[in-house]
Amino acid sequence: MNFPQDFTWGVATSSYQIEGGHDADGKGPSIWDAFSRIPGRIHAGDTGDVACDHFHRFREDVAMMARLGIPAYRFSISWPRLMPTGRVDDRGTINPEGIRFYDQLIDTLLEHGIEPWVTLYHWDLPLALQTERDGWLNPSIADDFTAYARLCFQSFGDRVKHWITFNEPWVVAILGYGQGVFAPGRTSTSEPYTAGHHILRSHAKAVRCYREEFAHHGGRIGITNNCDWREPLTGKPEDRAAAERALEFYLGWFADPVFKSGDYPPVMRERVGDRLPHFTEAERAELSGSSDFFGLNHYTTMFAAEASRDSGKQSVYGNGGISEDQDVDLSVDPSWPLTHFQWAVVPWGCRKLLRWIADRYGNPPLYITENGCALEDVVSPDGSVDDPDRIDFYQGYLAACHEALGDGVDLRGYFAWSLMDNMEWASGYKFRFGLVHIDRETLARTPKHSALWYGGVARHNALPGT
Ligand code: GAL
């Protein structure tokens, strides 16, 4: 199975999950630094203070990626490493050491022939913007985010040609402001919609800044959303409608305003009512078409059915919305294999979701910016990590991607989550998503068999044995 010649193959990480150096060289605290210190919030009291110590070991990590044959690397910039208070004003300044770190990382990647793909916001908001200004609930954050984005474009735009404004606004909104299981730990039924709204406004404003002020860099800029597939539980019209509604509440929420109408899906307006804010005409115009590509993080699939009154609705990971608003019952097929994270492995769901996106949004250039699995890896006595189930996972999902290409989907690239085992947010270090094993005592890096396999896929631009 060959992929198109210019297909992008990469691996992905994020700053808080791997960097460590939480207060090194002038970095300010982020909401995750604070959240991880609240007792009971993170599994086993883990923090990202050290994480994979990538801040000090990035040269080793880049050299390792090059040895594996990985052509592209998606990482995120830590806003409080560049701007310790999140703003430049009478108290806040730019941290030159932070700029220096990303300068060196980018230069090292380019020296090794690895293309940088940079996410501006992967959840580590400067703490001061939360405590002093209510984070994503404050409309003025769009100006703060744009100032930060401009600094990144100015500092790194000569070398970075692929930008992603936000990683998974849905997670920030639902897990951060609805369920409160992620920073900043808010629980509300209205704040997710407010936070999501200002994230979208911030995205559009930053994209406008890039297009107006940095067009000469010749790069591309977009947004990454997450979505699992929702398969109708039965062929009944109400279950089909429930599945469609679940996808609209999940992906449509953040993708319709950007790739379709400049506004939220009508079904959300109907069901969320006053809690769903309105865009001004100017904001709609700014949002519409504000992404050069469709970034997608995809992990799993669930069945969706019309909610029955007596069934308990899920309101934890994998739900896809505020359960009372979308009113959908979700379930999995017990025969589907589960990863250590309890996400079902269903490659055909990936193919169907790609098709759904192509149909709904006019077949935009699409990149899977994350896909991967957590498994209970075992280190052999000889130090190697044999992880055939991870290879099967990638084989299955990449075959599904290949089928989607055959369906006419304009899929341009794929990034495996993750380069290495890392700080899995509220789950701490419990789950291992990496292609590279990290020893939690010594932080030694050991490429798993899946890393060698994936490097081969990237080098040959093809799936082996197919
Ligand atoms: C995504 C997120 C990543 C990683 C992954 C696995 O939602 O962007 O940072 O945590 O899930 O859970």
Relevant terms:
single chain, 466 residues, alpha/beta, 8-stranded parallel β-barrel, 3-stranded mixed sheet, 16 helices, globular, binds beta-D-galactopyranose
What does it look like?
Helices cover 40% and strands 14% of the residues. With 466 residues, it is of the alpha/beta class. The strands form 3 sheets. The chain has an 8-stranded parallel β-barrel, surrounded by 5 helices. Strands 6-8-9 form a 3-stranded mixed β-sheet. It starts with 7 loop residues before the first strand and ends in a 6-residue tail after the last helix. Residues 311-320 have low confidence and may be disordered. Beta-D-galactopyranose is lined by residues 14, 17, 167-168, 171, 226, 297, 370, 417, 424-425, 433.
Brief overview:
The chain contains 16 helices and 13 strands. By secondary structure, the chain is an alpha/beta fold. It binds beta-D-galactopyranose (GAL).
Residue share in β-strands: 5-15%
What is the distance, rounded to the nearest whole angstrom, between the alpha carbons of the first and last residues?
5 Å
Radius of gyration: 21 Å
Q: Number of DSSP strands?
A: 13
Please, how many helices? 16
Strand order of the main beta sheet, please?
1-2-3-4-5-7-10-11
- What overall geometry do the principal axes of the alpha carbons give? globular
Give a short account of the largest sheet.
Answer: 8 strands, parallel, barrel
Bound molecule kinds, no repeats: beta-D-galactopyranose
Q: N-to-C SSE series?
A: EHHHEHHEHHEHHEEHHHEEHEHEHEEEH
